[in-house]
Amino acid sequence: MLDLSLEAPKPKVIAGATGDWELVIGMEIHAQVSSQAKLFSGASTAFGAEPNANVSFIDAAMPGMLPVINEFCIEQAVRTGLGLKAQINLRSAFDRKNYFYPDLPQGYQISQLYHPLVGEGEVIVEMGPGVARRVRIERIHVEQDAGKSIHDMDPSMSFVDLNRTGVALMEIVSRPDIRGPEEAAAYVVKLRQILRYLGTCDGNMQNGNLRADVNVSVCRPGQYEKYQESQDFSHLGTRCEIKNMNSMRFIQQAIDYEARRQIAILEDGGKVDQETRLYDPDKGETRSMRSKEEAHDYRYFPCPDLLPLEIEQEWVDAIAASMPELPDARKARYMGDFGLTDYDASVLTAEKENAEYFEAVARGRDGKIAANWVINELFGRLNKEGLAIGESPVSAAQLGGVLDLLADQTISGKIAKDLFEILWTEGGDPAEIVEARGMKQVTDTGAIEAAVDEIIAANPAQVEKAKQNPKLAGWFVGQVMKATGGKANPAAVNALVMQKLGL
């Protein structure tokens, strides 16, 4: 597993007119649960349906409709908690969070405030070789999503789509352990990676299936350490929340802007107001949305329609037993079993589908060679063509076949690249293609020797030059490879050239 003794990254420092300032960031990630039905109704969660098509009587808040907990959504939240090494609370409870908004027909959101399903956990965020931030998770609570207000369809009217209403969300709340914009983005990337490995959220930020609320404050150097010792928030500055961020780039830009805005206020002798803000990517700035509500403004109270949720330890243990191998463990295994570098192992484990493809190629073969081909040839080509791993024209079995032909010296490295191109454009079985198209490498030393002798005999002046400068022997190797249509074994050619020239 990942070594937790890794060095922590340095906090982001911004130089102000009156001295240095440090950033303190906490995040609330809203992750949509991967489930075909909503949290308290059987309505579909499919994205892209006609407006208000996926709405049950419960979602529409028809009188007398009672919520029924979707067990699968709870299971997904427990699985997420286990993936984040978090405490699973066997007893949790749902609360009503009361507020008016046009896309919330009930007038309240069913959430968990006082007794969340998942307690404290952690995420290890690597920032470079030997450098990682341990971000503590405070809680994960399960709640309903609200609907969606659409403001750009008419100049004078807004429209409401309730398809999203009632969809299960996991709100993953971190401690204020993140210390810079790059760390914040890396944290979201890592959390998204874990969720996708677990299969509990697809992490699609474009569709809003994963979005972040970012809490930003600034403090003087040394104050954060006092907070860490005491857990007393008074050592930290007043925080502002930036809502609904769904882009890594915008998260970084918003944090940087917001921190500098707060520093300017404080250095001018002002006071930072605790508030909720929005980020405008066109202007590159945050702007005030509303004053920060405290819990009592929402008038939370236990949901009278739902009994406290009680789950059994045996059920949690069964979920734990079915957990997949997570990215950190898989990366450590690749480095240990295959001798891969930290970088290569990170690239291969970034997405679960990538890792599974690599494993299929590497099974029973040289892991380093497999990694090299998957990263450089396959991923390089996929990126160039703008394709995902699932759309690769070359399957893991086909690429493995190329490596087998390389390993037994049927083909050379150059021929292998030509073969990969054929597989990419035309498909087929690697061994059959090599056989049918006469692509086998010439390993017959007699045939290679004849070609070497011929080239040497035809170029006496070049022979003399090579004897003066052995580096020029490469010219003969190139000529022999050309004469044999690139099929000669390069190592055998090189050895024979050196022997014949007496070098």
Secondary structure topology:
Elements: E1 13-16, E2 19-32, H1 71-83, E3 91-92, E4 95-98, E5 108-111, E6 121-128, E7 131-144, E8 148-150, E9 159-161, E10 168-174, H2 181-198, E11 210-219, H3 223-230, E12 240-245, H4 248-267, E13 275-280, E14 285-291, H5 295-298, E15 301-302, E16 309-310, H6 313-321, H7 327-337, H8 342-349, H9 352-362, H10 367-385, H11 396-407, H12 413-425, H13 430-436, H14 445-458, H15 460-468, H16 473-483, H17 490-500
Parallel strand pairs: 12-13
Antiparallel strand pairs: 1-2, 2-10, 2-11, 3-16, 4-5, 4-15, 6-7, 7-10, 8-9, 11-12, 13-14
Structure in words:
The protein contains 17 helices and 16 strands. The longest helix has 20 residues, at about 250-265. The protein is elongated and about 95 Å long. Helix 7 crosses helix 8 (about 340-350), helix 8 crosses helix 10 and helix 11 runs antiparallel to helix 12 (about 415-425). The protein has helices spanning about 70-85, 180-200, 225-230, 250-265, 295-300, 315-320, 325-335, 340-350, 350-360, 365-385, 395-405, 415-425, 430-435, 445-460, 460-470, 475-485, 490-500, and strands spanning about 15, 20-30, 90, 95-100, 110, 120-130, 130-145, 150, 160, 170-175, 210-220, 240-245, 275-280, 285-290, 300, 310. About 35% of the residues are buried. The protein has three domains: about 15-295, no CATH class; about 325-435, no CATH class; about 445-500, Arc Repressor Mutant, subunit A (Orthogonal Bundle). The chain has about 500 residues and is of the alpha+beta class.
